[in-house]
Design brief:
The protein has 303 residues and is α+β, with helices and mostly antiparallel strands. The protein has one domain. It is built from five helices and 16 strands. It has a 16-stranded mixed β-sheet that branches. Strand 1 and strand 2 form a beta hairpin. The radius of gyration is 18 Å and the shape is globular. The N terminus is likely disordered. This is Secreted protein.
Length: 303
């Protein structure tokens, strides 16, 4: 019975993904008719907690995430797989954020097995972020990952959002201006960006790898190269004194997504300049952050 239910859930997720891909592919400058647009969900995440609606329709869903925290916050969404308790996922995440590489590797492997990582947002008080994806009916859990990293606990507070049918798959209002694939290579996980050069653009992110990945977008000093980032992260990985940090501000961007997921992300009010795409999710094999394995990419954004 459980196997059959899991297969039905997998088919529903696949149908949702195809519907989302189709609406993105067909998106143009014309918006959907008034009153027919896909659901938009306002989320505020501050040191005091998360404020979000309790119920919304399923389908192509846009989350608009804001914070007043000058240091920035990270919102993470997840959905336990059928038969898995949501606190079990938090237990997995406690291990995944461990500083011990073996524990982190075991934890992130368990997260991928027990839950669907639905993305989320890195936001600052100056740069709110919105992201859009196809989500089927059911419960979604919202976690303040900034607070969770500081105080990892299976008893961490989460907010719940119930997405109900019928699901809506109306055209996407903002077509992507660039695309980013997260891929496996012989030398480790990598970003493969295309046309990521517009500060006010919307990026279509697709995880075609075998592991969970995030995509932070963090400003760096002008002239910074990927070779500079490699030297910086190599020093951190080996406990050597690193050169001065190349980063000049807090990250924005997309939270962790599971393999096979596609999400559109749009950080608002980014300034033109040089940025790094980064993934700090631990590797399932080594437990090291993917950035330490070379998953970083310099992009230059114009206004």
């Amino acid at each position: 019975m459980r196997i059959a239910s899991s297969r039905r859930g997998a088919r529903a997720a696949a149908v949702a993904a195809l519907a989302f891909a189709a609406t993105v592919a067909g998106a143009g400058p014309v918006c959907a008719r008034p009153g027919t647009g896909h659901p938009r969900i306002d989320v505020r995440i501050d040191p005091s907690g998360i404020r979000a609606p309790r119920n919304r329709p399923c389908g192509n869903t846009t989350f608009q995430v804001h914070t007043s925290d000058r240091r920035g916050r990270q919102l993470q969404l997840f959905r336990p797989k059928r038969g898995v308790r949501w606190r079990r996922v938090l237990e997995d995440l406690v291990n995944a954020v461990s500083r011990d590489p073996r524990t982190a590797a075991t934890g992130i492997h368990a997260v991928r097995a027990d839950a669907e990582a639905l993305g989320g947002a890195f936001v600052t008080s100056r740069v709110p972020t919105e992201f859009t994806e196809a989500i089927t009916a059911g419960w979604v859990y919202l976690l303040d990952f900034t607070d969770f990293r500081q105080h990892p606990s299976a008893d961490a507070e989460v907010e719940t959002l119930h997405l109900h049918g019928p699901c809506r798959y109306e055209p996407i209002r903002r077509p992507p201006t660039g695309r980013v694939l997260t891929v496996d290579t012989q030398t480790g996980p990598r970003f493969r960006p295309q046309d990521v050069d517009y500060a006010h653009g919307t990026l279509l992110v697709h995880d075609i790898s075998t592991e969970i990945h995030e995509m932070r977008i963090q400003p760096v000093r002008s002239g910074t190269t990927d070779a500079d980032l490699t030297r910086y992260f190599d020093a951190l990985a080996h406990g050597r004194p690193a050169e001065r940090s190349p980063f000049t501000g807090e990250p924005t961007g997309l939270g962790a997504i599971s393999p096979g997921r596609t999400v559109m992300v749009h950080p608002h009010h980014l300034r033109r300049g040089t940025y790094a795409l980064l993934c700090f999710v631990p590797d399932e094999g080594t437990g090291a952050p993917h950035t330490f394995l070379g998953m970083h990419q310099i992009v230059r954004l114009h206004g």
